[in-house]
Amino acid sequence: METCCFCEQPNTDGTESVVLGEKGCQGVNHASHERGSTIKVRRGQLVHKRCRRDFCEPSRIAASKLTDEEHGTVGLRSNRPLFDFATHCLFCGIMCKFDSRTRKRDLGVSLVRTLEFQRNLFETCGERNDEWSQAVSGRIASINDLPAADALYHRVCYINFKTGRNVPHAISGDRNVNKRVKTGRPKGETRHEAFLKVANFLEENDEEQTTICELVAKMREYLRATGEEAYTATYMKKKLLQHFGDRVFVTDIVGREDVITFRSTASSILHEFHNRPNTESPEEEKLRIVETAAKLIQSDVKYEPVMGDFYPTPEKMSCIGAALGFLPNSLRVFLKKMLVGKDTDLKVASIGQSIMQGVRPRVMLAPLQLGLGVQLHHHFSSRFLIDTLHAHGFSSSYAEVKKYERGAAVSRGTDIPDYKPEQFIQYAADNVDHNICTIDGLGTFHGMGIIAAKTPGSRSYEAVPRAPVTAEDIANAGRINIQYIRSSSPTEPLTYQPLPDSRVSDLSCGLDVLWKTSLLFRSPRPSWSGMMQMVRKSTHPGKSSVTFLPMIDLNPSNPSCVFSTLEFVCAHAKRYDVTPVVTFDQPLWWKALSIIRSQPPNSDLHRVVLRLGGLHTEMSFLGSIGHLMDGSGLQELLGVVYAGNAVSHMLSGKAISRAVRGHLLVDAALNTLLLEEAYGVQAVTNENDQSPRGIGHHHAEECEGNRHAVPTNDENQLPAEAVPRDAGNVIHSPAEVEGMTESIPVTDIASAQQQYEDLIAGATSEDNIQSSNVIKRIQERVSTKKRSLNSRTAQLWLQYMNMIDILRLFLKSERTGNWKLHLQAVQDMLPYLAASGHNLYAKSAYIYLQMMRGLPNTHPEVYSMFDNGYHVIRRSDRYWAGLSSDLIIEQVLMRSVKSVGGLTRGTGMSEMQRSVWLLSMPARAEITEAMQSVTGIGFETSEQHKDSTNSRQTRDVSDTLTLLGYLRNRSPFSEEPSLRSIASGLSAEPRVNVDQSRAIGQGILETMFGKNVEDFTFRKCFQAVTMGTRTQVKTDDGSIQVDPQLMFQRLVAIGGRFSDSEQQDIFRYELCSFPPALFESPCVPLQANKATLADALWKEVKQISAPLVSNAYHVLDGGALLHRILWPRTITYNALCQMYVDFVLNRYDSSTIVFDGYSDQPTIKDGTHLRRCGGAHGLAIQFDEDMVLASRKEDFLSNENNKQRFINLLSRKLEQAGCSTVHASGDADVLIVRTAVESARTKETILVGDDTDLLVLLIYHAEMNSENIYFAPEPKTTTKKARVWDIRQLKISLGPRVCDSILFTHALLGCDTTSRVFGLGKGLALKKLMTDSSFSQQAEVFSSLDPENKPDIIKAGEKALVLLYKGSQTESLDQLRYKRFCSKVVSSPVPVEAHLLPPTSSAAAYHFLRLSKV
User: Fold this and answer.
1) In sequence order, which ranges of 102-232 are alpha helices (DSSP H)?
2) Contacts of 1072 (CB under 8 A, 6+ apart)
3) d(CA 1142, CA 1213)
4) Buried (b) or exposed (e) across 891-906, using 16+ Cβ within 10 A?
5) Sorting pLDDT into bands at 50, 70 and 90, what band is 36?
6) Which of 126, 745, 1016, 1123 has its CA at a distance of 20 to 30 angstroms from the CA of residue 993?
7) How many Å apart are CA 258 and CA 213, to the nearest integer?
8) pLDDT in tens, 361-416
9) Helix crossing, 614-628 with 656-679: angle to 10°?
10) Strand 109-111 with 104-105, pairing
11) Do 556 and 562 touch, CB atoms closer than 8 A?
């Protein structure tokens, strides 16, 4: 093994070595000659670098030649006193005052502790080059390790030696020595002294991580009065390294100032600790140990290498191992010992990196700190949030994050990270619009956004350079040059060619049939999309990755913008040698097609494959469905489960997510209706959702007996022990409803149920379902049923179901990436697009199909990729997760631009800001993904499909059953031959032909064959005429459609030429065919929202739930009791009554149950009853105690005769069990309250009920001098905190004036017998009653009037209602209507709707008269 010729140690011992060259050999041999040494080297010899430097250093050579000469005197060695390093000063050679036994020394004496001290002395000796330095050099050359020899020195001697002075006269006794010896090369003494002060400052302020530039500034400050110039940064760095040697190190980072830092070795720290003076205090000893441990860890941190030229990569953030590996071992051990818990690795890594960042704040960049800052900036773009965490030491600063963002933007540019030839690239472009907030209101941004999607995706962990970035660098990286197109005409005409009718077999249609059937046996169940994701599994290309490309700052409506986009995409695709595939929505797609066709044959643009956006095609098709079904009752049907404004957007195709769900729910209800008729069965109802909903469900339709209950913070549920396990899982036929004992066999349904359960459980495959004979028989039976329906209404709704099947097919093709199925679905849409007047999409989709059908010939490589599922983009690694490319750009780019952390949320929309944000997105996304991986916390949705969650399943089934109940009473499959609306029953005009839309659309398509695209015109007269077509008025030029209500409002709007009195006369009439402020349709009053009054009372009087008395008497609402218990099937009526009896006896020791009375005579609550049962009227059933229950609960109770007979039977059973019952002749609310009030005269009483009407009646009727009376909801097993009302305390809090008028206030704004007034809440009325004496006075007047005194009743009611509308007592409702109309017209940007105005005086009069009868 080759050794170093100087130290004779192996060259492989880890010490830095160097190979000698020709000049190096000459230098070493010359030094050897000067030393008188025998060392000779040859060229190519390997030696230690430090050994060579020490051997050739002139000062050391001079020291080796010294004889007995010291301080200018020469003599024999025996004549001089013996020098001892342990007792004499290293510099002056004089004895030091030091006790070797006790290790105590004089305060002016110090020990040599480090080898660095010895090496620095050699350098100082070379600089002085005088007699004193030669003597000192001779002493230290004779020993290798001064600390081991316990060498001593006078501190003042050390200072004089370092500053160029002689031996201090206080020690040597020589008073005549010069103050300073000028030897060697002359130096600037003033500058040198300033430098030494700088060095001293650096030693005292090492913790500040001082930069070289700061030290230069400090030296300039010291020299300010002398006029001398400070050292340059380069020379300062050199001098500091010479002065301190290995005690300091300089960190060089590109683009940042050099930082100089002291470091100490572990040996020196431990040496200092062990040689410390002994202390007797344990506390001081403990603190010294802790301080030493901190120094050791700090030293290790300072020795850690710094990656100065690049930012940390996501790889160093993505796993715990890499994060822990960043820490020195000492810090990692220390933190693991400090932190407790099962898994502290992440905390150790995070806290450890924060400590390291704090130790070296200017030179170190901890990966997790940078990652957290970038992650927060990516999601929230908040300077406040990031800098707050930075101030606490947990994150990089916002400025550092922005530097990283700019560096990433320039380094990545427009490159697609980690692209491989086997990956498929496609592009999507769409317009980006934003109204920028400016002082003058100008500056709206219109541009073109572009993305590139790579399938399968991959992540590139390329390091981002840590270098300065200029605005010019960003502009060069992210600017797309705008190229202006020259107008030219296409070379060849484009004609419509016949499309081949090549049907593709749908291999999952059996799953559709099974799902449509599942409502007959499974409730709740996942929606169609949820089930498909659960069961459909197959291979797919994989998850894609998306890259943002620069925006084009030009309005996309400008053809030059589209042309520039195409040119950029072509050039970008050419870099990767791929065919450019780009997707646009319809307007941009047509412009792009026109531009490409206008280019010369040799243009690269002809390589582009243009795709029509699937999302926008789907939206257009949804709009076609809404248009064709206008006036059919679909809008009213969807309005059962959706808000009115939402339904309008759904039918127009704008609210696409809601529209798809709504149409699939309606289709499910229609299919269930057909299956019920085909098989003679009924769908399973979700029994857990049958029970009456409490008043807390303000927007839900209530069941009979619920009566808008007082909120109890839980849903009404029967205890688990009262519900049989098999309740709700048996299918019954209509024959059973009539009491027949034999049922129709439904083996197919039972087999389908088993297959469904096996499929969900994973026990069978979709292939087995597809080949199942059961599924085929069910499908054939439904098809037979459809063929038997000949009425025009049925044909319209069957056509609607066909359109939904096309929608389902299109969704299926996108989610699974089935290219052929995609083309078939678009082709199936064409007739309906044409028939509904969606001409632009009908034209574009037709040409799109022509082009895509020709892909095998024009672009075979693209067709091959499409056929393998690459035409869709997946954001998750699942089979059922494909999305169209225009949907991806909406979800990824547009949503990011306008969401928190995006461009429009404070980032800015200038060219540089856009470029930085867009081009840095891949790098920021990679770090965000890495941080989510290391923490296990994702900023994303669950892997579970939202339609598969329990809450969504329950809601979907509930809404489907609601729609099904509506359709059962208004079945579109009736035998009536005419075409009618299922909502209004109005028959269509003779010219309406919408039920033949497909044939009409097909006829339009046939007329297009062979025609030039530019010449063909779609004519409106050829389109389908819908049931919603407006009234036509004939004119000289033809006929126009007129909406009478719209015309009337326009006439009112131009009525300014009339006087105010004449205009006010107009507002005496409702601007609608019914009073919309009181009615939701011509025959249906607005449903009262009684719950808000109970909420307002509880909040207003600050009620606290009263404790219930154990021995109190109970009065029960019998109507609510009927709906308290779930009715299992296959149970006798006697057993059912016994369930009620047990329920009452187990909960209440003594009670009276008050039941409603039902008769065939009309009552004031008939409208409420109809709403609660959904308009259904069940069959009358003749039953006795021993008969088996054969119908559903809601069907049975919807017949009043059935309900009254069952009440009578139940009442007898309760009385036999010792309970008291009372029967009302009609509505029992007043009787229930009076029974409770009468009971309270002798004993404490609890009225058990959920109806707000009961609470209001108790407030009015309760007596203050009686025993306590409470109002409590039915106790339930799931109740956490129920409201228990102490009526006496409530009356005291409200006061007698409010209690006397509470009935009027409650009924005025809606109860079971009166309609709600639109726009007025009960909380407002209660506050008005408590604070406004005028309103309370009108309430008292109204309550005191004789019901037969109609004029005064109307007058008092109108004044009260005007006050609630914040009008004056002198105004009428008609005047207030006009006033409100004028104010809304001025302030509202949309036409004023009639329901936003108060009711007319005439309409309100009937409301007040009905109110007086309550």
Assistant:
1) 115-128, 131-141, 155-163, 169-172, 189-204, 212-222
2) 1045, 1394, 1395
3) 10
4) ebbbebbeeebbbbee
5) confident
6) 1016
7) 8
8) 877 889 999 999 998 888 888 889 999 999 999 999 999 999 988 888 888 888 88
9) 50
10) unpaired
11) yes
